[in-house]
Amino acid sequence: MYQVLIDGRDLYYPGDEEYSVEDAVVKLKLNDSGTFECGVPVQNPEYGSLKNRNSMLQVLKNGKEIFYGEVRESEKDFYGIKQVYAVGELAFLFDSIQPQAKYQDKTARQLLEIWLNEHNSQVEDKKKFYVGMVTVHDSNDSLYRFTDQETTLDCIREKLCEKLDGYLRIRKANGKRYLDLITLQEYGKICEQPIEFGENLLDYAENVSANELYTCVIPKGARLEKSPIEGLEAYVDITSVNGGKDYLYSADAVAAYGWNRCVVSWDDVTEPANLKKKGEKWLKDNQFETMTLSLTAADMSLLDTDLESFELGDSVPVYSESHGMDRTFPVQSLELHLQNPSDDKLQLGSTMKLSYTEQNKGHYQYIEQALENNRQTTSWLQSAIDNATAMMTGSRGGYKVTEFDEKGRWLRDLYMNAPSKEDATQVMQINMNGIGFSRNGFGGPYKNAWTIDGVLLGEFIKAGSVQAEALSAEYKTSVTNEINTMVTAKFKVAENLVQAEVTRAKGAEETLRSSLSLTDSKIAAEVTRATQSEGTLRSALSLQAEQIAMKVSKGSVSSQLSVESGLISIKGPRLEIDTEKFKVAKDGTTRLIDAYLSASDGTGGTAIFGKGVYMRDAAGNDAGMLSFAPRSKMACLGGYGSYGKIGLGYWGGNDVFNSMITLESTEDRPGIQFNTTFSYIGEECYTGIIGYVENVTYGPDNSLDVAYKAVRVQNGLIMEVVQ
To answer: What's the rounded Cα separation, in Å, for the pair 602 and 691?
Structure first.
């Protein structure tokens, strides 16, 4: 079932009379933005919402997005129906311009990232792209390219896709739009639905052409700064390494087809010898007639939901006995009629190069020799294989999760240090694109990987000695250069040990060293920096079955952390803890914030610290205190009873204070009290004179004699007794 959305709202829903459209067609093509067209009648509720260069259209097939793009045209016809035309999101790359610039020694991924960053700086968020998978490469991964105010899409297609035989695929994850640059083999899936003559094969066409067959080539390299001819640009050529001739030719091809010349440019090649090698290879690969096969077929998954639908870039098996066909072809384009699936068209194509007999013979001899060379495995390589086999079969621990896509097909295997990928920090992932290793969780980055295109990626791979059956000239040069900069690397594999070490000496003033050791019982890692000015800095990590230990040191000063099953140990000259409730400063100052610290005396009694200090006996009874906010909601020194009394002295129990001066602070009776006979002042922090009766006597005539005294109070404290 197809569904069409406009800015997230329904525009077309099958069976809904209001949300209906006419003649809706999606056209998709490799390395193309694709299009969507339909007619929107007046009664559609979204009729007035369609705005050019603003509205975003989305086409879903069984809930899965197959098209997303921007409305570019919406014109009314004679009957008021709006004819809507939208282009796919790849066309967003037409909305930015690359500046005039020169790029040297860049990989395909680096160039793609540079150009996408420039694009993103010129467009709004909804049109931004981020670099995704890049699996296409040139021979040395050192590209030389110019940009001269081309659109970003033209730049990518002409300078990367066409020259490196790459394909652009849009992928969406984590709220971002990623652009992959991959090979055709990696683009889609192996489709299980076949195309068969008499079933769903609708059209068959075969074309053999010699239009692009060349017997002679003139290689042209990088542009030179100076030209011998004023007004014309000059380029690197092969005359200096090819007997004064600027062209290469094949005598056999000339004899068979005659002279047919062309100029081929490699604008990243600056050395004539390298340019000649590229010209010779190109000539060898282009002395063939070209056979192009095109097929048109119906998608039977629309009738049988158990069959996989055809998608762009999928590899589809084709069987046609009458055409002598039993091969697999990639899907080059799709034309989907949302309301009339019987009109759908599927274009499959492949290009085969047909050589003459002698060339094929030489080619097969070359292949056979290469295969024979690969059969000869040296003894040292076999030893490494045996050791790797032992390590892999003897591994223990960890967690494995297998994931599948919405159709139940295997997606990936995850090997982790936690039961779920959300909690895991160390992840090894295996999928159709390779093997990757991350120390930062499932989301990566995967700095160590072995991808399907043959690239082995390591964060740091530098060695003074490398053994291999084949080693590129570029790598040999790189190793030589690194040795000259005083960088050494060691890698050792023994029966029960894997050890690696990298050292860099930056002159007499600084030495950097890192090492990693793996045994069957321990993993140890260490990083050291030695300088004359600051001494030796060292950090070490040790993982064993019974202990995890870390140590960081500077000279003779060190800090250590040890975690065992029954003990956590921290050692160091200073300790700093900063939490919401508890803080320890570097100088030893300790703070409790709205919290309590409890300590036991070993006999059942406890001392509680926090908002003061107060004690409890083994039965849980209060036994004296020094506090500013006890449970009775009063300040206290010495003890308290049920009335919340405080005083200078101690609490004798039974709500009796053995003190001369007490302060009561209950909700209904606040104030200052002398023993139990004086009146309450009724104010906290009182300042003034308080009078009281000291003595009362009666005379012989029954007269009354009263003696008065007073106390002077300053901010709630008794300062003196006055007459």
So the answer is: 49
Rounded Cα gap, residues 353 and 282, in angstroms: 13
Whose tokens are 């056209």? That residue is 27
How far CA 338 is from CA of 7, 37, 61, 310, in Å, comes to 19, 10, 9, 15
Report helix, strand or coil for 577. Answer: strand
Say what the pLDDT of residue 665 is: 47
Place of tokens 């037409």: 94
DSSP, collapsed to helix, strand or coil, labels residue 290 as strand
Q: 207-211: long-range contacts (C-beta < 8 A, 24 or more apart)?
A: 207/291, 207/292, 207/293, 207/294, 208/289, 208/290, 208/291, 208/292, 208/354, 209/289, 209/290, 209/291, 209/292, 210/257, 210/289, 210/290, 211/290
Helices (H), 376-501: 379-393, 473-484
Query: If DSSP codes are grouped into helix, strand and coil, which group holds residue 21?
Result: coil
Query: How many angstroms separate the Cα of 186 from the Cα of each of 183, 295, 352?
Result: 5, 21, 19
Can you tell me the distance from the alpha carbon of 583 to that of 577, in angstroms, rounded to the nearest whole number? 5
- 368 to 280, 355, 364, 371: CA distances (angstroms): 21, 18, 6, 5
Distance separating alpha carbons of residues 465 and 478, to the nearest angstrom:
12
Give residues with Cβ within 8 angstroms of 215, minimum separation 6.
249, 250, 253, 254, 257, 258, 259, 260, 261, 287
pLDDT of residue 522 exceeding 80, the answer is yes
- Taking CA atoms, 389 is separated from 277, 304, 326, 384, 488, in Å, by 40, 45, 39, 9, 28
Asked if residue 652 lies in contact with residue 667, where contact means CB atoms within 8 angstroms, the answer is no
For the chain, give every domain's residue range: 2-91, 100-108+117-187, 195-207+290-333+341-357, 216-287, 396-457, 482-571, 597-684
Place of tokens 């300053």: 714
Tell me how far apart the alpha carbons of residues 533 and 118 are, in angstroms, rounded to a whole number: 43
- Find the distance separating the first CA and the last CA of the chain, reported in whole Å: 103
Structural contact between residues 516 and 525, judged by C-beta atoms closer than 8 angstroms: yes
Q: What share of the chain is helix, strand, coil (3-state, %, to 5)?
A: 15, 45, 40
pLDDT tens digits along 279-331: 988 887 666 655 555 666 767 776 666 777 888 888 888 777 766 667 777 88
Is residue 430 scored above 60 in pLDDT? yes
pLDDT of 511 above 60: yes
Q: Which range has highest mean pLDDT (40-54, 137-151, 673-687)?
A: 40-54
pLDDT confidence band for 357 (50 / 70 / 90): very low
At 687, list the tokens.
């300042």
Q: Which residue has the higher pLDDT, 655 or 406?
A: 406
Q: Residue 315 in 3-state DSSP?
A: strand
Return the structure tokens found at 498: 């894997």
- Which residues have a Cβ under 8 Å from the Cβ of 447 and sit 6 or more positions away? 437, 438, 439, 457, 458, 459
Question: What is the arithmetic mean of pLDDT over 552-569?
Answer: 82
What backbone torsions phi and psi does residue 499 show, to the nearest 5 degrees? -135, 135
**Higher-confidence residue: 70 or 713?**
70
Of 142, 159, 160, 141, nearest to 105 by C-alpha is: 142
Contact, 634 vs 621, CB < 8 A? Answer: no
User: Do 58 and 3 form a contact (C-beta atoms < 8 A)?
Assistant: no
Residues 188 and 313 sit within 8 Å (Cβ to Cβ): yes
Tokens 């640059």 -> residue: 181
Exposed, middle or buried, 358 (CB in 10 Å: 0-12/13-18/19+)? exposed
The encoded tokens of residue 471 equal 């080693």
Q: Is 282 helix (H, G, I), strand (E, B) or coil?
A: helix
**Is the distance from CB of 312 to CB of 334 less than 8 angstroms?**
yes
What does the block give as tokens for 679? Answer: 């009146």
